[in-house]
Amino acid sequence: MRRFAELYDRLDMTTSTNAKVEHLVDYFEEAPPEDAAWAVHFLCGRSFERPVTTTQLREWTYDLADVPEWLFEECYITVGDLAETIALVLEGRLESATDEDLQLHEWVERLKELRRMSERRQRESITTWWRQLDTQGIFLLNKLLMGAMRVGVSSGLVTKALSEVSGLERPTIQHRLTGNWRPSADAFEQLVSDDTADVDQSRPYPYFLASPLQEDPDTLGDVDEWYAEWKWDGIRGQLIKRDGEVFLWSRGQELITDTFPELRDAGSMLPDGVVIDGEILAWRDGQPLPFSQLQKRIGRKNPSTAILREVPVSFLGYDLLEVDGEDIRDRPIEDRRRELDGFFADTHERFRLSEPIDADSWEELAEMRDGARDHNVEGLMLKRHGSPYRTGRKRGDWWKWKVEPYTIDAVMLYAQASHGRRANLYADLTFGVWDREGLRAEPGDLVPIGKAYSGLTDDEIAELDDWVKSNTIETFGPVRSVPPEQVFELAFAGLAPSNRHKSGIALRFPRIKRWRHDKSPDDANTLSDVQRLLEDHHGTVEADDSEPDPEQQTLFDA
Amino acid sequence: MTSQSEPLLRPQNGGLYCSAGDFFIDPLRPVERAVITHAHSDHARRGHEVYFAARPGVEILERRVGTKKTTPAIHGLEWGEPVRFDSVEVTLHPAGHMLGSAQIRVESDAPEHEVWVVSGDYKRADDPTCDPFEPVPCDVFVTEATFGLPIYQWDEPAQIFKQIREWWLDNREAGRPSVLCAYSAGKAQRILAGLTEWTDDRALIHGAMVEYCDIYEAAGISLLPTEYVTDMDPDTDFAGELILAPPSAFGSSWMDRFDAARTGFASGWMQVRGIRRRRGYDAGFVLSDHIDWPALLKTIEQTGASRILATHGKTDPLIRFLREERDLDAWDLDDAFGADGPYPEGADIGWEASEDGGGGGES
């Protein structure tokens, strides 16, 4: 297990994604395939049934190390990781470590055997291993025993590394890892095998990505040369049916067929050999629901009937890339749309077409765009007549013409040191708005409304950092509180009710638009101002209880 | 020993004051007579009129508390050499923390006839750069508790030096410099001495270490051959070199010259992965000049002290452990002189938190 322990250490000690991939590649190239298979299993965060409970592990540690429970707890608080706390507390109580180095998969076998043992024999086995391993070995054994291997590696990184090792494209690996993949030497060999017949049928096309339109639309020429649609606020996806099988891919090239079983079922009615580019939307009564509703579905594989009923989804098709098994991306958009319009919406009620919007002038389109929020859409898409379906973000044929984001003026409350390029600069800010009526706080207090870090120039960040450092009121770990004196204009893409925020509101994709040196804190917006925006945007100020983790927001790169 | 009488020592001026002998131990603010455990800046300050310290540590102390204009008055005491301050006798005993680091034993005359020992910073692990700690029997033992949790158990130092050497060689093979951060006075010399078992390659040192290395070598401690980085052309190819630097140099522009360097940190704090990760070094070497948990318990037992006063670090778990599991009268140094402690008279004068508490100090 030393090789895997070394990999674990390297992954644990770097925050660089590239370095992590490099370490994974090194490991996969050297490790025996059976070990590599289990490494894939654990590093992708797949579950492993715990042979014993953490309570048992703790109790055996108290006895073996002669450390009372309260003292163990003190240690745990300092270390912050149970597997490591046990390993460190046991250090020095241990007999001489053996030189025996079992492979990772041999350890897995040992742990599987444990499941069938009596508690007395489990305890004997584990405490014997603890005595024989060094601290790092105990730590890793504990991690395996606890069935969790969180080391800052996602299945995405593992896929990337395997793609480098095998020379295969990432979707190929991704596809092979979905479903009932079980770790074994054969399974690993097959994972990196260059015979890709098994995955060709599921393969999506690279997406054509629109560029943001920043100029006046007049610069695009005559409005007649353009085909306009709503820019839907959902998840971009490719729906594929080949050889009787349905595949749904996210824009992040993740296979999400199992997340949306109703689309998989509807897809089975599609003719064979089609690939449709479109948008997954929460949809009810002929209307898209806000993105915050769709969020409840993101990241849940095999969702419950309750959630399926609560947030029904539709797939809005806007382009056809393959028909009768033939790649038609080079044909003009009108052709492709004609083909799509001919069958798609009639196949199933969950399938709809993203209808074209007719307008005689840019002014008319601009007006419709300004009303976009009433339709729960983000703005307009402009696609050039006669254009093919290109690859990637090629400027010129596809533009997204978004509605201006919402803005408010808010007061800085806290600053936190940033990471990465802005490491150790206080550029990660928390903002508040006035709660004059005492809706969520004491009347007249500032209530936190959101965090934002992007949007300032390097000079502004340096200035801000100075100000924070010389005006700190209190320090809590990496966070400093500051006097409510600085006003910033925040821009955000939307907002949703939230029980997890004191303000009762979560801002979507907030960023700093401007540092308003010209404004005094009293000029900042109030919570009731923001609630009015919320009502306009969402129709209600009541939060749902089943709000997902906001980090999942970016999961599908929607 | 009764709680009514004036205690032999009590916190004052950021150190401990002995009224019976009118002197201070490790005071932070200027006083007339200061007895110093060792020459780290949180124990030895400028501005006292007369210093008393262990003979082997005099030169380092001079370097620490002297200025260009003044040479401080330092009395060097041999180990165990008694010195009388009014009605108390003081002797110094090796603490094993760094060259010349001392425990301070204070004995009052009859009728109280009480012995207190102030450990200063200390360790029991092997260290060729200083005299080894010796347990001193006493009634009251004032001990440091920087690493007072069972998660802190040090490996044999020889193992750590081997790890450092292997890391250095790996980096050399990869064509990279190895920048190892360690405190300038004590830890750096301990590493340079420890590595002599594995190599006689030269090491490069930061300017802050030069004088300390000279002092150690003058004391007859053999170190790796060293060269002063700043004397070298900044365009030198440093690939394959080991460079010792104080932690404050980590991330500074001084580091820019070491192209593609791997960085490491030698400290007891490196025992915990989360801390290794947060500090941002490529490698952490668990090498401490402080006492670890098992040796701390052993030492307390060996002193035979009936009362333990703990200071530095998180003292609460140690105190509770000593009370509940060892049946000892253990106190946090602050609390011992507080309203509920055995020495409530000194309640109004707090012991100042040392500057290296909470994860940052010379460890």
Q: Can you describe this structure?
A:
The complex is a heterodimer of chains A (558) and B (363). By secondary structure, chain A is of the alpha+beta class. Chain A folds into 3 domains: 2-145, Orthogonal Bundle (DNA ligase i, domain 1), CATH 1.10.3260.10; 211-402, 2-Layer Sandwich (D-amino Acid Aminotransferase, Chain A, domain 1); 406-554, Nucleic acid-binding proteins (OB fold (Dihydrolipoamide Acetyltransferase, E2P), Beta Barrel), CATH 2.40.50.140. Chain A is 37% helix and 22% strand. Chain A contains 20 helices and 20 strands. In chain A, strands 3, 4, 5, 6, 7, 8 and 9 form a 7-stranded mixed β-sheet that branches. In chain A, strands 12, 13, 14, 15, 16, 17 and 20 form a 7-stranded antiparallel β-sheet that branches. Chain A is globular. Residues 543-558 of chain A have low confidence and may be disordered. Chain B folds into 2 domains: 10-152 and 290-348, Metallo-beta-lactamase, Chain A; 157-285, 3-Layer(aba) Sandwich (Rossmann fold). Chain B is built from 8 helices and 19 strands. Chain B has helices at 58-65, 157-173, 187-194, 207-218, 273-279, 293-303, 316-326, 333-336; strands spanning 10-12, 15-18, 23-25, 33-35, 50-54, 73-77, 83-85, 88-94, 102-108, 115-118, 140-144, 178-181, 203-205, 226-228, 242-245, 262-266, 283-285, 307-311, 329-332. The A-B interface holds A 12-13, 65, 67-68, 70-72, 74-75, 78-81, 84-85, 88-89, 91-92 and B 149-153, 271-274, 276-277, 282, 294, 314, 316-317, 320-321, 324-325.
